[in-house]
Amino acid sequence: MKKRDSLLGLLLSLIYILFYQPTLAAIPTSSHTLATTPATSALPVATASAAKPSYNIGILFPNATDVRSNDPALNNMILTSELTIQLAQKHIQEQNYLPDVDLNFTRYYSSQFNGGKTSWTTTRMIEDGVHAVIGDMVSNTTQISAGLTGLFQIPQCSCGASSLDLSDKASYPYFFRTLGNVVVYGGALMEWIRQMNWSMFALVYTDDDVGQQTSLQTLITSGSRIVLVADSNPANQILILQTARSMGMLSEGWVWMLTNDLSEALSESVATQDLVEFDGLMFISGLWNLTDVPAYNDLYGLWQQQPVPDAFVDHSQWNTLGLSYNGPNAWACAELLALGLNKALNEYPGGRQKGLSDLSANSFNSTPMTPLFYNMNYTGPGGLMSFTALGDQETGHFGLQYMLNGSTVTYAEIRDGVYQPLPNVPILYLGNTHQWPADMAVRSSLNPKLSEAAGLALYVVACTGMVLCFITMVLIICFRDLKMVLVSSPIFLCLQLLGIFAAYVSVLLYINDVTVAKCIARQLTLVVGFTLVIGSIIAKNYRIYRVFQNVFTLQASKLKSIYLLRIVVIFGLVALAPLIVWLAVYPMEVHNYMVTMNTYCKLCVYPTSNKSVDWIHLNIAELICAIICFTFIMVASLLAWKTRKINSKWSESQQIGYVSYNTGLSAIVAAPAFFLSIDEYQVAIYLKLAAILFSATFTFFVLFLSKLIFICKYISTQRWFLFWKAYPRHHHKHDIDDDRMGSCSELTSAYRFETQSDSNAHNALVAKNLLDFTVKAHEGVLPVKKRARFHFMSIWQLKHVVVIPSKQTFVLMTTTGHKAEYHHYVSCQGMPRNSTGRYIFCVWTDKDTQLYFQVHDQNALERWVDWFNGEDRPDNTMNDERQDDHDNSIKQPRNNKMPSISTLGGASSSPFNETSTNGITSTTSSTNNAIDTLLVPRSSVYHHQSSQHFQHYPPSIMTPVATNADHTDTYNFYGAPPHHNNDSNPISTFGVNHDGQHSADYSY
């Protein structure tokens, strides 16, 4: 608003000058006489001698009588400056600075509250032909006058305006000042704060809404107790102080520093009984009593001889504090302008006489007389006057005072940036105390600490988890050949333990002091731990998913370390890359943030990342990393859901599913912590840490509790109670075989078929039906998959398939026989082979459901399609194929740990599946027409007595009788082999080893 008034006044003045074409001529006045009429415009009364050219200097101040009631300090400054300039004029004459020039001073009156009036007065002053100006006393009116004088290259010196806006040389090219601006004041204040051993302060400035309580309330919550008021307007300063007083901010523990002496203004505007509340209020002002400077002592001597003006507010302060109202600065302006003219004449192009001639003809060239021109090594009552290119003082002299009973007491000085405390002058602070206040309010940290219950609980839980992880890892490594460890893969378990251990470490890094190293370490440690756990779970579960998607091309080798480590490393690099790049580009710092008046928190921030964005809880790199990690959780959860029905085939699928789901739940719970404000810091930090601890602890107990129990039982059976003895590597071979066989039993138990072969039950079922009949049925074990909307949402599952072509029905039973599904089908058709080379046919049911069946080869495909379509195949062909399969099965290597692939999808019309009552219950026979699925190699590992598993019945009327009675070659798939002795390829959780087969995918 002030700038707009200044520009408006400047524009009006220019219009007036251009249209009325004023004549800039010297005013005939008497030599060395100051005109001080009460008019608001210049009325020169002095006359100049005709022999010498005149150099006219205008004095532009407000009228003291207009401001006395509102601003007593400004009233005293005007009176003091006017009298000091008169004394300087006499001194110039006595020193004969300008022997060939008459120096005239003319008084003009500006208006502090009327910018237009100041503009017209300045215009009239220029019309009167002034060559230089002293003024103004107030910054806003100085901007108006300096803008106009700069257009006409008229030097202007101010002894009271300190606004930083006046340093703009594009707008005020010929303006300079003999007092320090706010920058010099700021440098002095920083030295004062350093000497007071404070590290934090608050800066209060005003724009439009002065004294709003919301701004001061923000100051209270910030915790800062050192307040600097940057506004130099006394009215604004008083309004701010009165508001702060009503809010209790002028009490003990607070420090308020103002940039000018406000004691007199407060004494006028505040009741006498209330002034005691302002005792200890501090001021910084230009130092005026430089007793070690001879020029000041000379001025002080002259000052004591001057009568006290009637308009001076306090006559008792005239001799002691009168010069403090900018008297030395006004003296310096007058002498600098006179010495500057003398320098300009000496350096004038064409010589001094040419300059005097041009001065007489009103054509004096004042272009070089910019602020740097007045650097003449001049030292006056105000000290050394050295100017920058902006017209500001390079250094300054300042006095530090505090208010006491309406007066000021100086307790220290700052000269040329050096702090000099006055001896035997104790500092009085607000609250009428000499006790040094801290820069921040007494406060407590909200960061987790060991000294608090919450921090101690986090520490105990994390340390306990780390100890358990370490003990478990030692046991896993020592007993890595036990079946439960071997099934899970020791490298997988070690990666899980390392990840859980890292999660606990990241929690410990949140406790106690916050440092940059801790901030970086806990970020990286948490991400590394997460990728170790979730990455290894994804790698393992994905392989399980692939294995049970393709049972015919299964290559069930153990989980190789290189495969697992490669996946985990790739995931880790992807998750860590954003953080590493961010930390390399933007340095991290630890900042304190006030939460309430008495509490704060320490946060790791990136101050150079983006000034327009407050990255505190979550920066862009952490956000990307969080999205990547959440994507990993989604993939792990999806794989866990896809393999949820394989828990009987793979002992850990259910546990890993729980871990995946729980990790996702923990991430959802912790997510709001990254977006809560600082006011909710405790909620955010403990929510995040609790989620980490819960997820890590849950993962540990779900995955390792059963293994720890198993290992402890094994240790107790081996009587290993002497912990100082090393683990014996020469224990009995059959113990290891038994343990390993346990895992094989778990893996192959999925393929065991149990049937009710009790003849009494069969006869009872037949008797229950009033009409006994027989139908032709076909039976086998096939991988079956139901078509889903998205093919990857369904998985192949082994089913016991019974087809009754005459009824156009089929039954799908689980391999344990506990659950069956009955379907009517419409058609059956073989599917064309794709790049994976699988043999698949599709069956459409009457409910528009499509079921896919997978078989071993083309012959099996044609056979099953014919059976579903009700077409019989010649028995001799089937017998030949069965014999070929039997021969091939004999050639299987001994290290095959699961039945031949001929057991899957090679069933034929045999006594086992032909004779049926009501098309469901079947009988078995020991003939060579037994189904192909029951033929296995002649190995001692698989030799069983057929009487253990078979009830022999006479052949059905629909079953041709065979002559082969070698029952020992028939493998009952419902039973489990006791053990095997081949240790060449330890089994893993991904199934059994089947050499010579290849894994592939199918899109159906």
Structure description:
The protein is α/β, with parallel strands linked by helices. The chain folds into 4 domains: 2-179 and 293-374, Response regulator (Rossmann fold, 3-Layer(aba) Sandwich); 183-288 and 399-421, Rossmann fold; 453-589 and 600-718, Up-down Bundle (Rhopdopsin 7-helix transmembrane proteins), CATH 1.20.1070; 753-969, PH-domain like (Roll). Helix content is 41%, strand content 14%. The chain contains 26 helices and 26 strands. The model is unreliable at 16-49, 553-557, 720-724, 726-759 and 875-1004 (pLDDT under 50).
Give me the secondary-structure topology.
Elements: H1 2-20, E1 34-35, E2 54-62, H2 64-67, H3 72-95, E3 102-110, H4 115-127, E4 132-135, H5 139-151, E5 156-158, E6 175-177, H6 182-195, E7 202-204, H7 213-222, E8 226-229, H8 234-246, E9 255-258, H9 263-269, E10 282-286, H10 294-304, H11 318-321, H12 327-346, H13 352-360, E11 378-380, E12 383-385, E13 397-404, E14 407-415, E15 418-421, E16 444-445, H14 453-478, H15 483-488, H16 490-508, H17 516-549, H18 561-585, E17 589-594, E18 599-605, H19 620-642, H20 653-670, H21 681-718, H22 733-748, H23 759-768, E19 778-786, E20 797-804, E21 809-813, E22 820-830, E23 839-845, E24 850-855, H24 858-868, H25 875-890, H26 911-914, E25 916-917, E26 921-922
Parallel strand pairs: 1-3, 2-3, 2-4, 4-5, 5-6, 7-8, 8-9, 9-10, 16-18
Antiparallel strand pairs: 10-13, 11-12, 13-14, 14-15, 17-18, 19-20, 19-24, 20-21, 21-22, 22-23, 23-24, 25-26
